[in-house]
Design a protein that fits this description.
It is a single chain. With about 160 residues, the chain is an alpha+beta fold. Helix content is about 15%, strand content about 35%.
Length: about 160
Amino acid sequence: MLVFDLPTGFIPSTLLMKLSRLLPALIAPLLLAACGSVEIAPADAPSIVIGPNESRECGQGMVLFPVGVYKAEVVSSKGTYYLAPERIRTAGVLIGRSERGGIFVSNASGNPQAAWFGDPRDNVDDSPGTLFGAIGVTAPKLWPYTPKVPYTVKK
């Protein structure tokens, strides 16, 4: 077995003190960001209906939204995640894949929209299995776009 002896003072105590102060400052925002009011949408939450198929440029790619009823999946203090009736297609940088996702409608002024991928229900889990789950690594990716996808509300 190899044993390495580091010389005394190899890591200066001032560096250790700085690191011990910096580490909580780096971790605290990550943990606080995960603390939001996110909950599964109630069964009677209104859905939205997308008329003809819609496509939008999102960053480097194109997202294709299928026609149909998008059910409210998760509601948060920032907006509502509506799940597409089938997997949404992507083209361009993502090289044409289909993903679970839908449309996020923000509560912010003007109700901006974004495409989302993943599972927003992961944010609702009260006891995530890992620290990474607790800080939102599994949160859905939001891809903002304009113009907004027109929809009607179905109650």
